[in-house]
Amino acid sequence: MTRTVQRSPAEETADPSRYPQALTVADFRRNLAEVHGRIDRACQRAGRDPATVRLLPVSKTVDEARIRLSYEAGCRELGENKVQEAHGKWKAMADLTGLRWSVIGHLQTNKAKLVAQFASEFQALDSLRVAEVLERRLQAEGRGLDVFVQVNTSGEASKYGLPPEEVVRFVRELAAYPALQVRGLMTLALLSPENARVRPCFALLRTLRDRLQAEVPHGNRITELSMGMSGDFETAIDEGATVVRVGQALYGARALPDSHFWPAAAQPC
Ligand SMILES: *Cc1c(COP(=O)(O)O)cnc(C)c1O
Question: What's the pTM?
Fold first, then answer.
């Protein structure tokens, strides 16, 4: 007897080599429509309102010319994982009105000054040292910053982010930094085409968010769950994602492998 393996929508789209480069405004309009369609269908399956899921386009490695095309197609916020690259793009595209920048990658304290200048949002906060320097720089700039606490939900030793058991205490301590507004949690799931291994990472982030809401003063303001990327955002939406960070499905496959951007995936425990 033969058995056909049922593939989830996330698995069907997990191969990034299938994303062609977007080179025209029409390409970006089509890709945006396609991604919004995937978001809508995932919400429908999960019984959620699509308006509760924010699409954050991720433009890392994408050059200015193609970013401008995506802006023309409607992208008004962009996620970048390297601070210097993001800061350079922000300066080069200061003429684009209403464009917001979100830093989604690890930050070293010596680059906090740049983030304080231009970012609307920082999604990878995982140390009090960084929080302290950001606070000082933001105070000097007279700015505030929305932050997400990054959690290592996959247990991979090489990944950034706090261990899950430290999140509640960490968020309590962030109360000392008033320029930082804690909006929610962010995670990178296990990079795996297997839905069954990815889903628990997302479920864990949601459980932690719910705990924060119950246990931390003003926890009711901590609502966001940033989880899910081009290959796995349907599963993330099913587990409650409120922000999906999508690069390749909008801009096209990146030349460099993911291991270039994130510490190499070690053995998951
Ligand atoms: C690159 C990146 C993404 C987007 O990944 P895609 O596969 O391009 O959708 C999401 N989150 C973070 C932190 C990233 O660095």
Answer: 0.91
**Does the Cβ of 245 fall within 6 Å of ligand 1?**
yes
> Per the structure block, which two tokens stand in for 202?
């997302």
- 264 pLDDT exceeds 60? no
The CB-based long-range contact list for 190-193 (8 Å cut-off, 24+ gap) reads: 190/154, 190/156, 190/265, 190/268, 191/258, 191/265, 193/11, 193/14, 193/15, 193/231
Alpha helices in the chain (DSSP H): 9-12, 25-46, 64-72, 83-92, 112-118, 128-141, 167-173, 195-215, 233-238, 248-251
The sign one gets for the Cα dihedral 163, 85, 143, 67 is negative
Model pLDDT for residues 188-222, shown as the tens digit of each residue: 998 888 888 999 999 999 999 999 999 999 999 99
pLDDT tens track for 56-94: 999 999 999 999 999 999 999 999 999 999 999 999 999
Domain boundaries, the chain: 24-253
Closest CA to 170 of 162, 179, 180, 159: 162
Q: What is the CATH number of domain 24-253?
A: 3.20.20.10
Distance from residue 46's CA to the centre of ligand 1 (Å): 23
Q: Residue 225: phi, psi to the nearest 5?
A: -130, 105
Distance from Cα 156 to the centre of ligand 1, integer Å: 17
Cα 247 to middle of ligand 1, angstroms: 6
Instruction: Work out the average pLDDT over 22-38.
Output: 98
Closest listed residue to residue 177, CA positions, set 145, 148, 214, 218? 145
